[in-house]
Amino acid sequence: MKEKVTAKQETNAASGKEMYSLAIQDFIKMTRNDPSFFKLSPEEQKQKAMEYVQKVKEKTQ
Questions:
Q1: What is the C-alpha to C-alpha distance for residues 35 and 19, in angstroms, rounded to an integer?
Q2: Please, what is the angle between helix 7-33 and helix 42-60, to 10°?
Q3: Rounded distance, CA 45 to CA 35, Å?
Q4: How far apart are CA 34 and CA 15, in angstroms?
Q5: In the chain, how many domains are there?
């Protein structure tokens, strides 16, 4: 049987989709500003991406 979706669940889903969309936009912006990102090793890419995300998160709080 299908469960009834609450307004809060819908809001959380929309918020999650919005956050995902913003994260993708931020990633695109970061790589446009620094195309050398793709020359880094996967570990360095992850570290640089996490640093960028943290910086953006601090700006928005």
A1: 23
A2: 120
A3: 11
A4: 28
A5: 1
Say how many residues make up the chain.
61
Q: Tokens for 13?
A: 């889903």
Under the banding of pLDDT at 50, 70 and 90, the label for residue 47 is very high
- Write down the pTM of the prediction: 0.52
Question: Which phi and psi (to 5°) does residue 6 adopt?
Answer: -85, 165
Does pLDDT of 8 surpass 90? no
**What is the domain range of residue 47?**
7-60
C-alpha span between 54 and 58 (Å, rounded) = 6
Q: How far is CA 2 from CA 5, 54, in A?
A: 9, 38
For residue 38, being part of any structural domain is answered with yes
